[in-house]
Amino acid sequence: MEDSLSGGFAAALLVAIAVATVAEAKTTIEPCSGSDACQALLGYTLYADMKVSEVAALFGGVDPAALLAANALDFGAPGAAHRILPMGLFLRVPARCACSDGVRKSVSTRYAARPGDTLAAVADVVFAGLASADQIRDANGLGASGDADPNDAPLDAGQKLVVPLPCVCFNNSDSNLPAVYLSYVVQVGDTVPAVAASYETTVTDIMNVNAMGGPVAAPGDILAIPLPACASTFPKSASDHGLLVANGTYALTAGNCVQCSCGPGNLDLYCTPASLSGSCPSTQCSNSNVLLGNVSTHATSAGCNVSSCGYGGFINGTITTLLNTGLQPKCPGPHQFPVLTDPPRTVNHDSAFLPPLSAPGPAEAGGVFPGPSSSGKGAPSSSVQGGSFKFPRVPPTHGHGPPGSVSEAPPLLSKPQQILSSFIFCLLLHFHM
Ligand SMILES: *[C@@H]1O[C@H](CO)[C@@H](O)[C@H](O)[C@H]1NC(C)=O
Ligand SMILES: *[C@@H]1O[C@H](CO)[C@@H](O)[C@H](O)[C@H]1NC(C)=O
Ligand SMILES: *[C@@H]1O[C@H](CO)[C@@H](O)[C@H](O)[C@H]1NC(C)=O
Ligand SMILES: *[C@@H]1O[C@H](CO)[C@@H](O)[C@H](O)[C@H]1NC(C)=O
Ligand SMILES: *[C@@H]1O[C@H](CO)[C@@H](O)[C@H](O)[C@H]1NC(C)=O
Description:
The chain has helices spanning 7-20, 52-58, 64-69, 119-126, 133-139, 192-198, 203-209, 362-365, 415-432, and strands at 38-45, 50-51, 84-85, 90-100, 103-106, 110-112, 160-162, 165-166, 173-174, 177-185, 222-231, 244-246, 250-253, 258-261, 270-273, 295-300, 303-315, 318-328, 347-348, 383-385, 388-390.
């Protein structure tokens, strides 16, 4: 029955949508001065099936385990860095939010162009709308040459680009409570109330943070979403000073020798030894026989005597600990950790976002788009089963960038194909009902 679907119909729809989303996208920016960096998260939707390590490399060499930890995905499982994550999966990527040219942005991402890449494809597809082609062009001092749109001109293979990515910190607080900010690319079909609800915040809060005049955002806009977080109080001398962990997630620190989690019961940072690194310094609380994270309780007539060994930061290669003792009215139960899950193998249409449709290029607006290369009927071969779906894999036609400090990424699924796949899928779903 899928074959009865007319490509022309889908194409007409595609053009209509592309034209509707042509408006300039808005991004929330935070002015800054000085050179201090802070912690932020980038909301990234995978444009292809990718290994954890590939996503990590794409974003300036984030540690794969840290990437998993920030998404409460099992970072300690054997081979976790090589797990394949499905196209369409939404991830929070930890980012060092620097102060550059007077505004907060993440500037540690370097991308090596692959054959056939254009600035528009790098921005809209590879970085899923987090960067714009114009911003990448400016950041790399690439002038416009010739009459053609420079954003659609093929880049030289191997050409290295700085990719500035939007982030804000706003003092890592929201309404005077610790918060970490997620840069979220608004997707087709999103509404501000729905985005607010899915991050357990209010429309008012999102409007205040983003200085919006009304509760309306357009696809491709980048909103800063405050996420409640557990803050640390490590001294400035600690290399992990300012560590902040979003509620429901984990972070790795002290050379992957310590893992800290936040929530779900309270927003007190809770750290324990991590077993990811071969050789780690001692995690024993000084002058005691207890280890980092140990909590002992003694019920007394005056209340519960609670002793705990907390984490005080990574200072000069030493895991500093703090032994706290105090009386509490009631003895606490065993510590509740945020649930760690296995990375999903497929993305459920209901629970994840479709690939972004921000800032379509002129080729799409003009209605010129190549069909899927292999059979010419790539999209209708999408399988639809029980609510989950898989996009057709496109055979790797591009080489990888040179190895080194720059990132590699899986082959590009061209944006028209990506959009087409999404729409065919939605249409199929519609026709099945
Ligand atoms: C951050 O804190 C500094 C001083 O602590 C203050 O001057 C500044 O206005 C604050 N910025 C925001 C966005 O809250
Ligand atoms: C933290 O997350 C848990 C669920 O994971 C939720 O029940 C709790 O309300 C959240 N806390 C805050 C302050 O948002
Ligand atoms: C102390 O912490 C270590 C490391 O997390 C753990 O293996 C051990 O079971 C804990 N002991 C007690 C008594 O809680
Ligand atoms: C609580 O326990 C610690 C050792 O576990 C002990 O040193 C301290 O004196 C106790 N405090 C009270 C008030 O009982
Ligand atoms: C760290 O080590 C250096 C020398 O190795 C020393 O000068 C400095 O005071 C130490 N810092 C702390 C906080 O211990």
